[in-house]
Amino acid sequence: MKNVKALIITGFGINCEEEMAAAYKLAGAETKIVHLNDIFSEKISIHDYDIMNFPGGFSFGDDLGSGKVLSNKMKFKKMKSGKLFFEDIKDFLDEEKFVFGVCNGFQFLVKMGLLPNLNSDFEQEITLTGNNSAKYEDRWVHCKVNENSKTPFLKRIDKLFVPVRHGEGKLIIKNEQIRNKIVEKNLNCLTYCDEFGKETSEYPLNPNGADLNCAALTDETGRVFGLMPHPEAFLSLYNHPNWSQLKRQNPDIYEDGEGLQIFRNIVEFIHRKNVKSTKKK
After folding, report:
1. Of the listed 16, 19, 103, 137, which one is catalytic?
2. Which domain CATH number covers 98?
C-alpha cells in the first residue's frame, strides 16, 4: 500500500507527530512529517498527499484556549502565492481526500469549522473546553463506536481502550438544533463508555463531561475525523498499562494495540480508492 501518502503536520507546539508517523508506517503508508511553515511557504503541497493529519500537542501553549491560536493561523494565514491556507484545505477536501485530527488536532478541526460543518459554511458550531474536573486528565478510557457511523476510520471496530491526555476535552454544542443534527446524522461516532460498552457520563469513565459523551466526531462525508483520545499511543500490546498481566494470562495474545486499527482502516480504504481510480483511467 505504498501508494497511500500520509502528511503529518508539526510545529508551534505540536508534539505527537512521531507517534502518528509510526502508526501510519505500521499500517503500510508512506509518511512525511512537515512543519506548517513549509506548507505556508509552499515548499510542500498538501495536494501531493492522500490524508492530512493534525497530531496532538500544546500549540502555542494553549494560552488562549486549546488549539485556538493555531486554528486561527491556519484559517487566515496566506501562503506564499497569496492563497489562504484554509482555501487550500477546502480544495483538498473537494478532491475527496481525508483530514484527521487527534486531541489538539481535533481542537483545530473544531475551531476552524471543519467539524461538524453541518451548514457547509465552515463556521464554528461546537467547541472543546475545560474538563469538568478542572484538571488535566491523563488516563485510559473505553470508547464505543457508533455502529451507524459511515466514516471509514472506524470500520470493523466496536470498542476501543485508549489513553486521553488533555485539559480541554469537554465538547460543548452551540445549540439544540446542531445537537439534534449531530445525533440524527450519526456524526457522534465515538462515545465514552464503561468496560462493557455501556455509554456513560460518569467521571472518570467520561473524563471531561462532553455533551453526548462525545469522544469523536466526523463530518457528513466521513472524510474529516477528529477524536480526543490518542490511538497513536496504543500501537502495541506493550503500550497497554497492564500488558504484563495480559501476556501472562494469555501468552498467545494478539500483540497489536487497539489504536492501530484506525490507521489500518483508513490506509486500506484509501488504497482501495486509489486502485479503483487508477483502473478507471
Report:
1. 103
2. 3.40.50.880
Query: Out of 19, 125, 168, 232, which one is annotated catalytic?
Result: 232
pTM of the complete model: 0.96
Q: What are the C-alpha distances in Å from 245 to residues 12, 163, 171?
A: 39, 18, 34
pLDDT in tens, 82-135: 999 999 999 999 999 999 999 999 999 999 999 999 999 999 999 999 999 999
Written as one string, the DSSP assignment of the chain is: -TT-EEEEEEBTTB--HHHHHHHHHHHT-EEEEEEHHHHHTTSS-GGG-SEEEE--B-GGGGTTSTTHHHHHHHHH-B-TTS-BHHHHHHHHHHTT-EEEEETHHHHHHHHHT-SS-TTSS----EEEE--TTSS-EEEEEEEEE-TT---GGGTT-SEEEEEEEES--EEEES-HHHHHHHHHTT-EEEEEE-TTS-B---TTTSSS--GGGEEEEE-TTS-EEEESS-GGG-SBGGGSTTHHHHHHH-TT---B-TTHHHHHHHHHHHHHHHHHHHHH-
Catalytic residue among 137, 143, 214, 230: 230
Q: Is 232 a catalytic residue?
A: yes
Establish whether 143 is a catalytic residue.
no
Number of domains in the chain: 1
The cell numbers describing 54, all together, are 493534525
Host domain of residue 234:
5-280
Tell me the pLDDT tens digit for each residue of 176-197: 999 999 999 999 999 999 999 9
